Amino acid sequence: MTGLGNMSAGRASIQRKLMLIIVSISGSVLLLSCIAFLTYEFYSYKRDTIQRLSSLAQIVATNCTAAMAFEDTDDASEVLISLSTEENVTAAILYDLEGRVFASYPANINLDSLPPVASRADNEFWIQDDRVHGVKRVSQGTQELGTLYLSCDLGSFYNQLQMSALQSAVVFMIAMIIAYLLSRRLQRQVSTPILALVNTVAEVSRSKDFSIRASALSNDELGVLTNAFNQMLGEIQLRDSELRESEERFRLMVSNVVDYSIIMLDQEGHIITWNIGAEKIEGYKAEEILGQHFSKLRCHDLQSSADGANVLQLAVAEGRHVFEGWRQRPDDTEFFAHIVLTPVHDENGVLRGFCMVTRDITERIVHEEKIRKVNADLERRVEERTVELKATNLELEAFCYSVSHDLRAPLRSIHGFSQA
Q1: Which of 130, 271, 292, 420 is buried most deeply by CB count within 10 Å?
Q2: Which residues are within 8 A (CB) of 186 and not within 5 positions of it... i.e. 6 or more apart?
Q3: CA distance 103 to 75
Q4: Ranges in the chain, pLDDT < 70
Q5: Rounded Cα distance, 197 and 216, in Å
Q6: β-strands 260-265, 143-153: how paired?
Q7: How far apart are CA 414 and CA 62, in angstroms?
Q8: pLDDT tens figures, 269-309
Q9: Are 263 and 356 within 8 A, CB to CB?
């Protein structure tokens, strides 16, 4: 269940990620478009306002030329009052050559709030305090008559810019909703094959059934990935089948061996397999001994787990360790065991456990003991017979000596008689 829960979390995650990618890209493009639009609006309005104010200043300066030439302030004031039709124009002032105010609009304007214009160049326009300011020289031919100052308020522009920003925000939200709805639909083209593959992986992991195959729902890269995954499952299934057959053959071979105890130990020496031969020789049922340390097999040379650990270390150091000794079964009967302990490594040389093969050689030991006793008895009899033969030889030697001594005198007489 934990694996399936993880798969469910992964399923939700891939869908959210795809939707987040689509919505993020769409939102980023829309946001940049809105920013670019508002920026363009700002600078284009600023440019247009300056151009319009420059044109207006040129017209007003031209219309005020005669009034300033004849020093007619009333006529100049009427020209400036005509600027009231321009809603954004907030101030217009004519200065004479000495810098005095010749005419102004509106008439009660606060001159202290206006920027100085004496140092400004002809036809110069700038933005200051949310207003566009401009200066235009009034001249007749080559004769300079004075200076015209115009001021234009940007309040309406900022109101228009706020309205444009609000409209952009509304369009942005509507577009994001549409992008979200489209992403929910479009992400399925990518997530559905992936989720089908994930479900297949989860089912294979849960059931350990490598015959399950994933359905290829498209002919693109995801379809290629699905087909490759199915091919991989086929290879795993074939290898798993071959491995199972090999393991079954090995299990049958080991389990049916009754003359040898063949058991597997883990790295610490705990018993993990038990065959019929082990049950016959050792006297334990599988359920009684599996998981126990092999020192429990009650070998006279292994009295504790520490002794067993030393034996395991010897096996690792020597490549294999062979030892013999008397063992005691649970029913207190004893047998003489010949034991071969071999470390088992994987293809990377990592120790995976030990294989311990035990053979009951009690009968051989008993026969060897009988033969040893018979040989000892024969040697004893030979020694006794040798002593008897030596005594007989001594008696024969003594008899021969006695006979030769007793016959020596008669033989001399016979020899002397034969000489006479």
Answers
A1: 271
A2: 22
A3: 9
A4: 1-12, 118, 298-308, 405-420
A5: 9
A6: unpaired
A7: 201
A8: 899 988 888 888 888 888 888 998 888 876 655 545 556 67
A9: yes
Cα–Cα distance, 51 to 171 (Å, whole number): 31
The enclosing H or E element of 351 equals strand 351-360
For the sheet with 334-345, list strands across it: 260-265, 351-360, 334-345, 321-328
82-110 tens-digit pLDDT: 888 887 888 888 888 888 888 888 877 77
pTM of the model: 0.45
- Return left, alpha or beta for 283; rule: phi > 0 is left, psi -120 to 50 is alpha, else beta: left
d(CA 191, CA 12): 10
Looking at residue 268, the DSSP 8-state letter turns out to be: T
188-207 vs 2-63: helix axis angle to the nearest 10? 160
Q: Which among 83, 81, 96 is positioned nearest to 56, based on CA atoms?
A: 83
In order of 160, 196, 229, 351, 393, the CA distances from 35 in angstroms are 15, 41, 46, 66, 137
Find out whether 354 and 336 touch, Cβ atoms under 8 Å: no
What is the distance between the alpha carbons of residues 119 and 326, in angstroms, rounded to a whole number? 121
Angle made by CA atoms 375, 378, 383, in degrees to the nearest 5 = 125
The answer for residues whose C-beta is within 8 angstroms of residue 41's C-beta and 6 or more apart is: 160, 161, 164
- CA dist., res. 220 & res. 379, Å (int): 93
Phi-psi category of residue 298: left, alpha or beta, with phi > 0 → left and psi -120 to 50 → alpha: left
The one-letter code for the residue type at 240 is: D
| Sheet of 131-140, strand order | 101-105, 89-95, 143-153, 131-140, 124-128
